[in-house]
Design a protein that fits this description.
There is one protein chain. This protein is mainly β. It has two domains: about 110 residues, no CATH class; about 375 residues, YVTN repeat-like/Quinoprotein amine dehydrogenase (Methylamine Dehydrogenase, Chain H, 7 Propeller), CATH 2.130.10.10. About 15% of the residues lie in helices and about 35% in strands. It is globular and about 55 Å long.
Length: about 525
């Protein structure tokens, strides 16, 4: 199975609302998406008592952004955001806290907690990190845009999952549309399920093959999972009672057996999780591991969950190698810990699994779900802060079905003086155990202006890397490859690019919908 990694949360949408260095405000589509998500978060009937935790995270991110820009005084846009948040009425007491997910792109979560460190460090000097274990370097190329195809423009794409050069799926989270193609990335069909209500929001997706997919949708105060086996021409609907969350992670082992993590932020750097399973292809879902909210809120400091998933960290996903053995992963800023939990009973109970720690990790850790290429061989991506100015990628491999993991040499993208380099969790992809890619983005620390991106490629399972520096219209948020040469990338402006030479040359493409 091809690897693909992604995630995002609502407070990162607000982070994206800061003006550009030239004072330009973000696009109306970003604002509209944020307002809709905030409205859903607050008005959800099952939203919990602790809405203030999400707002506190928003406030911290805004303050961190001001520090990064070297301007403690809030900008006009930030004051407007503060006014918006202050204008919300007090949170109503409800059963569980809820946040709404957004498009698949996650910026480095360490920036909030480490902003003060960044600021102080940059005052006394600059950080220069050398690329390690790269046997070839070079400049990539962005070719002029292809002649637009005739037809209606698809609009921004936030996620793409291709199975070959012509067949695949895409998501537009701004308009909550599901797209399908059998004619390449320039020609799509809108196959969105007929959901109830205009306020419905796509909460999660699982694209199993060119014809089979599942889509989790929030409709009012209910969560539903739609399924299709004919490429989206028809959909069937299953209700998930009493399970509305702030994040959703769905995975399928085969066309029958799948899992759904429903997460809720309960405190800073803490997320409670319920685990659901289906054994009939999504016709019905059963809660197999439930979080005890009453016990937690009665004693948060002393809360113990010995057989369930830990409340610590923000969950990044779940995956299974067979019907009994699987993993859940998370990101955390709470010291040197690789958040990796394993189950041997299909998700009913979980235990922490240890992996070798990188020797030079700074603080922030983000572990992504492992992807298996067969019953024994798999890859586990791990992103951490090598310094306060750069993220580093560690890849762990297993050849015994995940019983143990061994690390490849860490890859640290270069960060020159006054710059910051990040690795989006959606920008890591492998087509097999040897051939893979990841992308990093470089920004000016003071202005947070996008400078360039670097695409890394390995053909020996992460032992050595070739890299190409390119500049798109905006920073890369995700990549998707189907072969050693054919792949695609989406930037934060939600533009789509294509490569046919393994990542050295990129061409912007303009998709249309029939």
């Amino acid at each position: 199975m091809k690897a693909c990694f992604r995630a995002k949360t609502i407070d990162e949408q607000i982070e994206a609302l800061s003006p550009t260095p030239e004072g330009r405000l973000p696009s109306a589509s970003i604002n509209a998406r944020l307002i809709r998500d905030l409205s859903l978060v607050y008005n959800h009937p099952s939203y919990a008592q602790h809405l203030e935790h999400s707002l506190a995270q928003v406030e911290q991110r805004l303050k961190a952004r001001q520090i990064q820009q070297g301007n403690v005084a809030a900008s006009a846009q930030q004051r407007a955001q503060s006014s918006l948040l202050a204008s919300l009425p007090p949170a109503r007491k409800r059963e569980q806290p809820r946040r709404t997910p957004s498009a698949p792109h996650r910026f480095a979560t360490a920036l909030g907690s480490m902003a003060a460190v960044l600021f102080a460090a940059l005052l006394v000097g600059s950080f220069i990190l050398l690329l390690t274990h790269a046997h070839q370097t070079g400049s990539g190329r962005v070719k002029p845009e292809n002649t637009p195809a005739t037809g209606k423009q698809v609009g921004p794409l936030t996620y793409i999952h291709m199975f070959d050069a012509t067949t695949g799926w895409a998501v537009n989270n701004n308009t909550n549309r599901i797209l399908h193609t059998t004619a390449g990335v320039t020609h799509w069909q809108d196959v969105t399920p007929a959901v109830a209500g205009r306020s419905s929001i796509i909460a999660g997706t699982a694209f199993f093959n060119p014809s089979t997919a599942w889509v989790a949708v929030i409709e009012g105060s209910r969560l539903f999972v739609y399924r299709t086996h004919d490429g989206g021409q028809t959909w069937q609907k299953a209700s998930i009672p009493d399970r509305i969350g702030s994040s959703y992670h769905m995975t399928f082992l085969n066309a029958r057996v799948g899992w759904l993590l429903v997460g809720n932020v309960v405190a800073m750097d803490q997320e409670a999780v319920d685990v659901l399973q289906t054994r009939d292809g999504g016709v019905s879902w059963k809660v197999i591991s439930a979080f005890n909210y009453n016990l937690y809120f009665n004693n948060p400091a002393g809360f113990q969950n010995p057989t369930g998933l830990s409340v610590e960290g923000h969950k990044t996903g779940v995956s299974f190698v067979n019907e009994t053995t699987g993993w859940a992963t998370a990101s955390t800023a709470a010291g040197r810990i690789a958040w990796l939990y394993i189950t041997h009973d299909g998700g009913v109970s979980w235990q922490q699994q240890s992996i070798p720690e990188p020797p030079d990790a700074f603080q922030e850790w983000e572990t992504l779900p492992p992807v298996f290429f067969n019953a024994t061989d798999g890859i586990l991506p791990h992103i951490f802060l090598f310094s306060s100015a750069s993220q580093t990628l560690n890849l762990y491999f297993t050849h015994n079905g995940g019983a143990s993991w061994s690390a490849t040499p860490a890859v640290s993208p270069s960060a020159t003086a006054g710059t910051l380099t990040t690795i989006p969790d959606g920008a890591i992809d492998f087509v097999d155990a040897r051939h893979g890619w990841f992308a990093s983005n470089t920004f000016n620390v003071k202005s947070y202006q996008y400078l360039n991106s670097t695409v890394y490629r390995t053909s020996d399972g992460g032992q050595r890397w070739t890299h190409y520096t390119i500049r798109l219209n905006a920073d890369i948020t995700m990549i998707d490859f189907v072969s050693q040469t054919q792949g695609w990338a989406i930037d934060s402006a939600q533009a789509l690019y294509q490569t046919t030479d393994g990542g050295q040359t990129w061409t912007k493409v303009r998709p249309t919908v029939a």
